[in-house]
Structure to design on (121 residues):
């Protein structure tokens, strides 16, 4: 029976390609399921053989640890260079989007707090 190795929600194309290459290099058979058209499932990378799961999980742990170090270093470098996206840079680039998101957050918070405010009075 197949085992899910990686849910593809919020997985970038570079990470997906790295994981596929890693599995291929170590001779681990895998396949990909595509995301559903209705957004219920995001797809995933599955192992064909159950016996490959411990080895694949160990490889993924090593890969993710190395990727974490690399990505944090890239982010720190971007912050030092001033090229990292921050709230201020996003607001300057897309002010309408930022204002709409903040308004949406305020509306959601108001809807959540409304029953408590009504019960209090």
């Amino acid at each position: 029976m197949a085992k899910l190795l990686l849910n593809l929600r919020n997985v970038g194309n570079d990470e997906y390609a790295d994981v596929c290459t890693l599995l291929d290099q170590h001779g681990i058979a895998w396949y990909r399921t595509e995301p559903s058209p209705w957004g219920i499932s995001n797809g995933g990378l599955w192992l064909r053989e159950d016996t490959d799961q411990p080895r694949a999980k160990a490889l993924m742990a090593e890969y993710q640890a190395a990727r974490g170090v690399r990505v944090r270093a890239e982010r720190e470098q971007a912050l030092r260079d001033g090229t990292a996206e921050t709230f201020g840079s996003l607001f300057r680039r897309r002010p309408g989007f930022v204002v709409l998101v903040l308004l949406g957050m305020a509306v959601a918070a108001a809807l959540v707090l409304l029953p408590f405010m009504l019960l209090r009075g």
Summary: The chain is about 60% helix and 10% strand. Helices lie at 13-25, 53-81, 87-93, 95-120. Residues 1-84 form a domain with the Alpha-Beta Plaits fold (CATH 3.30.70).
